[in-house]
Design brief:
Blueprint: H1 9-41, H2 46-52, H3 58-69, H4 73-86
């Protein structure tokens, strides 16, 4: 049996999944931290915030935000602005 020196397509897919899962997360954390700041300190729309931190698709941004905070950006803003206004 001849062994190829090149990885199979499934091996390459596993490598790309690993890279995406492990190297995108720090960038996403920085993005989300910037989004939190903008949600608190500005009146920009969610779409404007998403665009300003590099997301062209608001759904993609909202998905990442929900992954970290368990709620949508708008719900997070509403909850935290309510608490700030009550203080």
């Amino acid at each position: 049996m001849v062994h190829s020196i090149f990885p199979t397509s499934s091996q390459m897919a596993a490598v790309f999944r690993f890279i995406e899962e492990n190297y995108r997360q720090p960038i996403t954390l920085c993005d989300i931290a910037q989004a939190i700041y903008l949600l608190q300190k500005t009146e920009q729309t969610i779409g404007q915030i998403a665009e300003s931190i590099g997301y062209q698709d608001i759904c993609h941004f909202s998905r990442y935000f929900r992954q970290f905070y368990g709620t949508s950006p708008q719900a997070w803003r509403n909850e935290h602005l309510c608490c700030v206004a009550a203080s």
